[in-house]
Amino acid sequence: MSQNNNANNKKAPKFNYYWIYGIIALALLLFFTFTSTDTRLKEADWEEVKGMIEDGDVNRIVVVNNQNAEVFLYSDSLGKERYSEDEIEKTNQFFGQSNQGPHYIFTVSSGDQFKEDLKELYAQMDADGMAVEPVSTKFETRTSWLERVGWLLPIIIIVALWIFIMRRVSG
């Protein structure tokens, strides 16, 4: 009978909350690993992009922070030989979806200068008798979440260190 009481008196193991921290850290790591697209972008210059526009391969261009322009190609253009040399992936390596882009990135001096360069290109294409189909151009301003809350990180570290030291001192 005493063995039965000992078995009932044993406490169940207490849940360790460090598992929650580990799962959150793993989820964040996986999220940022699988959603990162900047690693596959190929550098290009304006002359290369002009050739892509003249060939009708460019779907749209997004100018980010008036510094960089992201070039999105049509999915059927990705099969051309010139893009297979650059090893542009036709599908997303993790989910098997078609690679929507951006496929190339290049630096622009300013948004206004880029607009002028596009107008000149369209005028030149029109003068040469080429079919002019304007490429959709969009201007965006982007900031990362780290830039927005990065100033909080030192404060959090100092407060956490202070709490840790105070707990050690109090016994």
Topology:
Elements: H1 2-9, H2 18-34, E1 42-43, H3 46-54, E2 58-64, E3 68-73, H4 81-84, E4 104-107, H5 111-127, E5 136-140, H6 145-149, H7 152-170
Parallel strand pairs: 1-4, 2-5
Antiparallel strand pairs: 2-3, 3-4
Describe this structure in words.
The protein is α/β, with parallel strands linked by helices and 171 residues long. The protein is built from 7 helices and 5 strands. A 5-stranded mixed beta sheet has the order 1-4-3-2-5, covered by helices on one side. Strand 2 and strand 3 form a beta hairpin. The longest helix has 19 residues. The chain is elongated and about 90 Å long.
Can you tag this structure with a few keywords?
7 helices, 171 residues, five-stranded mixed β-sheet, alpha/beta
Q: Beta-sheet strand percentage?
A: 5-15%
Q: In angstroms, what separates the terminal alpha carbons?
A: 42 Å
Largest sheet: 5 strands, mixed
Structural class: alpha/beta
Radius of gyration over alpha carbons? 27 Å
Helix percentage range? 40-55%
Q: Write down the overall mean pLDDT.
A: 78
- Give a count of the beta strands, DSSP E runs of length 2 or more: 5
H/E order of the elements? HHEHEEHEHEHH
Strand order of the largest sheet: 1-4-3-2-5
Total helical segments: 7
